[in-house]
Amino acid sequence: MFHLASSLYTQYTKREQYNVLILGLDNAGKTTFLEHLKLLYASPDSSKKPKRSKDTASIIKSKRILPTVGQNTTTIKYESSSDSHLNYNNINLKFWDLGGQKSLRNMWSRYFTSCHGIIFIIDSTDTERFQECYETLVNLTHDENWGSANNDYDNMVNVPILMMANKQDLPQAIDLVTLKTGVFIQLVSELEATDSKLLPVSVLENQGLQESLEWLVTRLVYNKPNRAPEYK
Ligand SMILES: Nc1nc2c(ncn2[C@@H]2O[C@H](COP(=O)(O)OP(=O)(O)O)[C@@H](O)[C@H]2O)c(=O)[nH]1
Ligand SMILES: [Mg+2]
Protein backbone atom coordinates (compact mmCIF):
# COMPACT_ATOMS: atom_id res chain seq x y z
CA MET A 1 0.00 0.00 0.00
CA PHE A 2 2.78 2.32 0.95
CA HIS A 3 4.49 1.43 -2.29
CA LEU A 4 1.42 2.25 -4.34
CA ALA A 5 0.91 5.54 -2.54
CA SER A 6 4.52 6.52 -2.99
CA SER A 7 4.53 5.65 -6.67
CA LEU A 8 1.35 7.68 -7.18
CA TYR A 9 2.96 10.53 -5.31
CA THR A 10 5.98 10.33 -7.61
CA GLN A 11 3.75 10.32 -10.67
CA TYR A 12 1.89 13.44 -9.61
CA THR A 13 4.73 15.52 -8.31
CA LYS A 14 7.53 14.73 -10.72
CA ARG A 15 7.92 15.51 -14.38
CA GLU A 16 7.94 12.82 -17.02
CA GLN A 17 11.23 12.70 -18.88
CA TYR A 18 11.70 11.17 -22.31
CA ASN A 19 15.13 10.56 -23.88
CA VAL A 20 15.31 11.40 -27.56
CA LEU A 21 18.29 10.60 -29.80
CA ILE A 22 19.13 13.08 -32.55
CA LEU A 23 20.66 11.06 -35.35
CA GLY A 24 21.60 11.61 -38.98
CA LEU A 25 24.71 12.00 -41.14
CA ASP A 26 27.26 14.65 -40.25
CA ASN A 27 26.29 18.12 -41.49
CA ALA A 28 22.55 17.30 -41.44
CA GLY A 29 21.80 20.01 -38.85
CA LYS A 30 21.67 18.05 -35.59
CA THR A 31 23.62 20.53 -33.46
CA THR A 32 21.87 23.51 -35.02
CA PHE A 33 18.56 21.87 -34.08
CA LEU A 34 19.70 21.41 -30.49
CA GLU A 35 21.00 24.97 -30.23
CA HIS A 36 17.71 26.28 -31.56
CA LEU A 37 15.72 24.27 -29.01
CA LYS A 38 17.82 25.81 -26.23
CA LEU A 39 16.65 29.25 -27.35
CA LEU A 40 13.02 28.29 -27.79
CA TYR A 41 12.40 26.31 -24.61
CA ALA A 42 13.40 26.74 -20.97
CA SER A 43 15.63 24.22 -19.24
CA PRO A 44 14.04 22.30 -16.32
CA ASP A 45 16.35 23.80 -13.71
CA SER A 46 15.93 27.38 -14.75
CA SER A 47 13.01 29.71 -14.39
CA LYS A 48 14.32 31.80 -17.27
CA LYS A 49 11.75 32.33 -19.97
CA PRO A 50 12.69 31.13 -23.45
CA LYS A 51 13.21 33.75 -26.15
CA ARG A 52 9.97 33.00 -27.97
CA SER A 53 9.34 36.54 -29.10
CA LYS A 54 12.85 37.23 -30.42
CA ASP A 55 14.17 36.31 -33.81
CA THR A 56 15.93 33.11 -32.80
CA ALA A 57 17.06 32.34 -36.37
CA SER A 58 19.36 35.35 -36.43
CA ILE A 59 20.82 34.41 -33.03
CA ILE A 60 21.56 30.91 -34.31
CA LYS A 61 23.13 32.27 -37.50
CA SER A 62 25.48 34.45 -35.48
CA LYS A 63 26.79 31.42 -33.54
CA ARG A 64 29.63 29.32 -34.80
CA ILE A 65 28.53 25.70 -34.61
CA LEU A 66 31.50 23.35 -34.81
CA PRO A 67 31.31 19.72 -35.91
CA THR A 68 30.27 17.67 -32.88
CA VAL A 69 32.91 15.61 -31.12
CA GLY A 70 31.51 13.23 -28.54
CA GLN A 71 27.98 13.74 -27.35
CA ASN A 72 26.03 16.84 -26.70
CA THR A 73 22.91 16.78 -24.50
CA THR A 74 20.18 19.28 -23.73
CA THR A 75 17.08 18.97 -21.58
CA ILE A 76 14.08 21.20 -22.14
CA LYS A 77 10.76 21.70 -20.44
CA TYR A 78 8.23 20.95 -23.10
CA GLU A 79 5.31 23.34 -23.42
CA SER A 80 2.62 22.97 -26.02
CA SER A 81 1.89 26.14 -27.94
CA SER A 82 -1.16 28.16 -26.96
CA ASP A 83 -2.98 27.34 -30.21
CA SER A 84 -2.38 23.62 -29.79
CA HIS A 85 -5.08 21.15 -28.83
CA LEU A 86 -2.49 19.27 -26.77
CA ASN A 87 -2.05 19.96 -23.14
CA TYR A 88 1.15 18.29 -22.02
CA ASN A 89 2.84 20.59 -19.59
CA ASN A 90 4.55 18.17 -17.30
CA ILE A 91 7.13 16.81 -19.71
CA ASN A 92 10.89 17.12 -20.01
CA LEU A 93 12.63 16.10 -23.20
CA LYS A 94 16.28 15.11 -22.97
CA PHE A 95 18.02 15.22 -26.36
CA TRP A 96 21.23 13.39 -27.17
CA ASP A 97 23.21 14.58 -30.21
CA LEU A 98 25.64 11.72 -30.73
CA GLY A 99 27.59 12.97 -33.74
CA GLY A 100 27.03 11.66 -37.25
CA GLN A 101 30.49 10.94 -38.69
CA LYS A 102 30.79 7.44 -40.04
CA SER A 103 33.17 6.36 -37.25
CA LEU A 104 30.65 7.42 -34.59
CA ARG A 105 27.58 5.74 -36.06
CA ASN A 106 28.29 2.30 -34.61
CA MET A 107 28.07 3.89 -31.14
CA TRP A 108 24.42 4.82 -31.65
CA SER A 109 23.00 1.37 -30.88
CA ARG A 110 24.30 1.52 -27.31
CA TYR A 111 21.67 4.14 -26.64
CA PHE A 112 18.74 2.29 -28.23
CA THR A 113 17.67 0.39 -25.12
CA SER A 114 17.30 3.52 -23.03
CA CYS A 115 15.79 5.95 -25.53
CA HIS A 116 12.10 6.74 -25.94
CA GLY A 117 12.19 8.21 -29.41
CA ILE A 118 14.42 9.20 -32.32
CA ILE A 119 14.73 12.25 -34.48
CA PHE A 120 16.54 11.43 -37.70
CA ILE A 121 17.64 14.55 -39.57
CA ILE A 122 18.08 14.41 -43.34
CA ASP A 123 19.92 17.15 -45.26
CA SER A 124 17.43 17.64 -48.12
CA THR A 125 20.11 19.32 -50.25
CA ASP A 126 22.71 16.56 -49.98
CA THR A 127 21.45 14.44 -52.88
CA GLU A 128 24.86 12.80 -53.31
CA ARG A 129 24.53 11.18 -49.90
CA PHE A 130 20.83 10.22 -50.04
CA GLN A 131 21.82 6.59 -50.59
CA GLU A 132 24.17 6.63 -47.59
CA CYS A 133 21.52 8.38 -45.54
CA TYR A 134 18.96 5.77 -46.55
CA GLU A 135 21.28 2.89 -45.62
CA THR A 136 22.03 4.49 -42.26
CA LEU A 137 18.31 4.75 -41.54
CA VAL A 138 17.70 1.13 -42.61
CA ASN A 139 20.50 -0.12 -40.34
CA LEU A 140 19.21 1.92 -37.47
CA THR A 141 15.59 0.80 -37.75
CA HIS A 142 16.55 -2.88 -38.05
CA ASP A 143 19.24 -2.95 -35.38
CA GLU A 144 19.32 -6.09 -33.22
CA ASN A 145 19.19 -3.98 -30.05
CA TRP A 146 15.51 -3.20 -30.69
CA GLY A 147 14.52 -6.81 -30.05
CA SER A 148 13.36 -7.08 -26.45
CA ALA A 149 12.33 -9.88 -24.10
CA ASN A 150 8.65 -9.53 -24.91
CA ASN A 151 9.07 -8.71 -28.57
CA ASP A 152 11.79 -10.77 -30.13
CA TYR A 153 10.03 -11.84 -33.31
CA ASP A 154 11.97 -9.21 -35.21
CA ASN A 155 14.40 -6.40 -34.65
CA MET A 156 12.25 -3.59 -35.94
CA VAL A 157 12.45 -0.28 -34.13
CA ASN A 158 9.83 0.04 -31.36
CA VAL A 159 10.00 3.73 -30.54
CA PRO A 160 8.61 6.59 -32.65
CA ILE A 161 10.93 8.01 -35.32
CA LEU A 162 10.51 11.53 -36.53
CA MET A 163 12.36 12.02 -39.82
CA MET A 164 13.02 15.67 -40.50
CA ALA A 165 13.65 16.72 -44.10
CA ASN A 166 15.86 19.65 -43.11
CA LYS A 167 17.19 22.77 -44.91
CA GLN A 168 13.86 23.37 -46.66
CA ASP A 169 14.71 27.09 -46.64
CA LEU A 170 17.31 26.51 -49.39
CA PRO A 171 16.17 26.67 -53.03
CA GLN A 172 18.02 23.47 -53.94
CA ALA A 173 16.29 21.46 -51.17
CA ILE A 174 14.44 18.39 -52.41
CA ASP A 175 10.77 18.71 -51.48
CA LEU A 176 8.86 16.21 -49.37
CA VAL A 177 6.95 14.54 -52.20
CA THR A 178 10.13 13.96 -54.23
CA LEU A 179 11.94 12.69 -51.14
CA LYS A 180 9.14 10.23 -50.41
CA THR A 181 9.11 8.87 -53.94
CA GLY A 182 12.90 8.72 -54.36
CA VAL A 183 15.46 6.55 -52.60
CA PHE A 184 13.46 6.64 -49.39
CA ILE A 185 10.18 5.39 -50.86
CA GLN A 186 10.08 1.89 -49.45
CA LEU A 187 11.49 2.76 -46.08
CA VAL A 188 9.28 5.78 -45.53
CA SER A 189 6.14 3.83 -46.35
CA GLU A 190 7.28 0.94 -44.16
CA LEU A 191 8.04 3.30 -41.28
CA GLU A 192 4.98 5.50 -41.70
CA ALA A 193 2.85 2.37 -41.36
CA THR A 194 4.26 2.10 -37.82
CA ASP A 195 4.93 5.00 -35.55
CA SER A 196 7.01 7.32 -37.68
CA LYS A 197 6.66 10.40 -39.81
CA LEU A 198 8.62 12.49 -42.30
CA LEU A 199 8.14 16.25 -41.88
CA PRO A 200 9.66 19.21 -43.78
CA VAL A 201 11.67 21.63 -41.60
CA SER A 202 14.36 24.25 -41.47
CA VAL A 203 16.05 24.00 -38.11
CA LEU A 204 18.01 27.13 -38.92
CA GLU A 205 14.97 29.28 -39.72
CA ASN A 206 12.71 27.68 -37.09
CA GLN A 207 10.27 26.36 -39.66
CA GLY A 208 8.30 23.29 -38.62
CA LEU A 209 10.03 22.83 -35.25
CA GLN A 210 6.93 23.34 -33.14
CA GLU A 211 4.82 20.98 -35.27
CA SER A 212 7.61 18.40 -35.17
CA LEU A 213 7.92 18.44 -31.40
CA GLU A 214 4.15 18.29 -31.03
CA TRP A 215 3.98 15.18 -33.19
CA LEU A 216 6.85 13.59 -31.28
CA VAL A 217 5.46 14.30 -27.81
CA THR A 218 2.07 12.86 -28.80
CA ARG A 219 3.79 9.65 -29.94
CA LEU A 220 6.07 9.43 -26.90
CA VAL A 221 3.06 9.64 -24.61
CA TYR A 222 1.17 7.12 -26.74
CA ASN A 223 4.13 4.71 -26.57
CA LYS A 224 4.31 4.87 -22.76
CA PRO A 225 3.09 1.27 -22.25
CA ASN A 226 6.11 0.12 -24.31
CA ARG A 227 8.66 2.52 -22.94
CA ALA A 228 7.78 4.18 -19.67
CA PRO A 229 9.26 7.63 -19.08
CA GLU A 230 11.68 8.41 -16.30
CA TYR A 231 10.37 10.60 -13.47
CA LYS A 232 12.53 13.57 -12.57
N1 LIG B 1 20.25 26.76 -44.81
C1 LIG B 1 20.26 25.92 -43.76
N2 LIG B 1 21.42 25.50 -43.23
C2 LIG B 1 21.40 24.65 -42.19
C3 LIG B 1 20.16 24.20 -41.62
N3 LIG B 1 20.46 23.38 -40.60
C4 LIG B 1 21.81 23.31 -40.51
N4 LIG B 1 22.37 24.08 -41.47
C5 LIG B 1 23.81 24.29 -41.72
O1 LIG B 1 24.41 23.01 -41.99
C6 LIG B 1 25.72 22.95 -41.40
C7 LIG B 1 25.83 21.74 -40.48
O2 LIG B 1 25.03 21.93 -39.34
P1 LIG B 1 25.32 21.17 -37.96
O3 LIG B 1 24.22 21.53 -37.04
O4 LIG B 1 26.72 21.39 -37.51
O5 LIG B 1 25.17 19.64 -38.46
P2 LIG B 1 25.46 18.29 -37.65
O6 LIG B 1 26.77 17.76 -38.15
O7 LIG B 1 24.35 17.36 -38.04
O8 LIG B 1 25.48 18.60 -36.20
C8 LIG B 1 25.94 24.29 -40.71
O9 LIG B 1 26.65 25.12 -41.57
C9 LIG B 1 24.53 24.81 -40.49
O10 LIG B 1 24.45 26.22 -40.44
C10 LIG B 1 18.93 24.67 -42.20
O11 LIG B 1 17.81 24.35 -41.80
N5 LIG B 1 19.05 25.52 -43.28
MG1 LIG C 1 26.98 18.34 -34.83
Automatic annotation (TrEMBL):
Kindly list the GO molecular function terms attached to this UniProt entry: GTP binding; GTPase activity; metal ion binding
In this chain, GTP is annotated as bound at 24-31, 100, 166-169
Q: Which GO terms describe its cellular component?
A: Golgi apparatus
Alphabetical keyword list: GTP-binding, Hydrolase, Magnesium, Metal-binding, Nucleotide-binding
Species of origin reads Candida tenuis (strain ATCC 10573 / BCRC 21748 / CBS 615 / JCM 9827 / NBRC 10315 / NRRL Y-1498 / VKM Y-70)
Q: Which InterPro entries match?
A: P-loop_NTPase, Small_GTP-bd, Small_GTPase_ARF, Small_GTPase_ARF/SAR
One GO-annotated biological process of the protein: Golgi to plasma membrane protein transport
PROSITE patterns cross-referenced by the UniProt entry: ARF, RAB
Q: Where are the transmembrane segments?
A: none
Q: What is the lineage of its organism?
A: Eukaryota, Fungi, Dikarya, Ascomycota, Saccharomycotina
Write down the superkingdom of origin.
Eukaryota
Query: Which is an annotated Pfam family here?
Result: Arf
The protein's name:
p-loop containing nucleoside triphosphate hydrolase protein
Which segment of the chain is annotated as a signal peptide? none
Q: Which residues bind Mg(2+)?
A: 31, 68
Gene3D superfamilies the UniProt entry points to = P-loop containing nucleotide triphosphate hydrolases (3.40.50.300)
